[in-house]
Every structure is written in structure tokens, then in C-alpha cells.
Amino acid sequence: MELIVGATGYVGGVLCERLLAEDRPVRALARDPSRLKARDGLKTAKADLLAGSGLKRALAGCTTAYYLVHSMERPGEDSTDFIDRDRRAAERFADAAVSAGLERIVYLGGLAPPPEAPLSPHLASRLEVEQILLDAVPGSTALRASILVGAQSSSFRMLVRLVEVLRMLPMPAWRNNRTQPIDERDAIEYLARTPSTPGASGLALDIAGPDVLTYGEMVERIAESMGVARPGLGLPLTQTPAASAVVAALTGQPVELVRPLMESLENELLPRDDSAQRIYGLRLHRYDRAVEHALRQWEKGEPLAAR
After folding, report:
1. What architecture (CATH level 2) is domain 2-301?
2. How far is CA 113 from CA 28, 117, 120, 154, 240, in A?
């Protein structure tokens, strides 16, 4: 039995569909199981990570657990409160996993910037949670990714919405920073294969697409795929706090979600090596194909005004 913690979220929901399609026994954990879509073969469990309640029952009979939960700042709260929430949730889950004799935790976090670059609070929290889980269950695997290119990916949707609503795209100082976005399909493939990949046991691996792109190039290629012209306007400053409020208003997304996404753009986020691809042996999708696929999936559910 495989447990998905965070099954009501974006990645958890897609992964759940993938595992069920392979007839793998899946149990989805949620504070409110009624939010989970009923699916053949899916079992559910009610639990609260912060309180620790329900975890023993949720983990019973499971060999692997996917840990796919992250907190965001809440309006009006101290900007570091989410760090404490994520730490407490990870510690309670780790303790319960050890008691249950879990064989492996699979965690999805974020790529780390270069050692000389400062960590944003959100990336620092992701790395702390990763360490808590790996220390608790030594056979676990942490996968670190940059931007996921998918129709429901918050970071990708933010970029698409900006292309939709602006005729000229202001490009802050982070426009020349590089990263390696990964197709949602490839990220899910890595996650799904991890329990059956012995070589990944006990490791933190960087997963990335094959294309190294600046953030400016990423936005330009999204505009090209949408068939619109969006000239870029280079700006000398970043001003993330003010810019995140503007972007949130333009894209209709909560500022507490937009701010950490924009903070992550302030540094280059590149994989340390290609160990993950060598261990898993995946053929990865190029960025342009990933964008086109994501936009097609998006249009199945809602129209794109600029396409």
C-alpha cells in the first residue's frame, strides 16, 4: 500500500491518478477526505499532520509514503509561521512513520540555489523538511525540482496569466537567472518510479528538464506557444515584495502564493548533477513540448484569452 500525503493538492492529485492507472494500492490522506474525488481502488484516511491525529491508522499496512505537503504564509500572519508549521508537521509524520515501520518516504521539494546565494525562507523550509524525513527513514528519497510545467502548476499558471494580461512584459533583474524547468509528466514519472528504484534509496536527487533557460526565455517561449507578441521591458531592480503584490492582482492568485514563487526567481536554480537521470534512465521532454502540452491540457478545462 502506498500513502499519498497531500492528495488534495496539485501534484498529489496527478500522482494519485497515475498510481491507480497502474493498479497500485493507494491510500490518500487528507484532513477532509470529502475533498477527494472518488476513484475505483482508492482508499482514504483522515488525519491531521500538525496534531498528529490519525497518522497511525493512515500508515497501517503502508510500505511507501509520498509526502507532498507545503505550507504557505497566511494573510496577516508572521511571515515565518509557516516554517514552524512545516517543521512540526514533518516531525510528527516522521515519528509516526518510524513507529509504523515504513520502508520509504518520497518527498518532493525544490532545487537549492548555489551555496553562496541566500536561501529564501520557503526554500530553507523545504530543505529542513527534507532532512527531517531522510533522517527518520534512511531508505527515503527526496526529489528536488524547479518550476513544474503543467496546466495546474501554480508557477506555470502565474507566468501564463502574465502573458495573457500584459501587452508588454516587465522583466525584473531576475530575468537573466537560469533554471531547468521540468515537464509535469516527467516529475510524476520520477515520483511513480521511486519505490521500485533501489539506486535512489537514501538520496536527495535534483530532477530537471533537459533545457537550461533564463526566466526571461521561459516567458518568451510561453508567449510564442500562445501565438502572441509580448515585448520584454528590462528593469534594473527586483523589488519582490512590491512586485509580488502587483503580480498577484494581475493574475488573480493569492499574494501569499505568488511571493515565494517570485522569491525563488531571484537566484539561479540549477541541478547539482545528472544523477537522477542516470539512476532512473528517463527520456525527458523538452521545454517547448512541455509548454504546448500544458497549454492543451489547460484549454480542456478553461479558455486562454491570449491563445
Report:
1. 3-Layer(aba) Sandwich (3.40)
2. 32, 6, 9, 20, 17
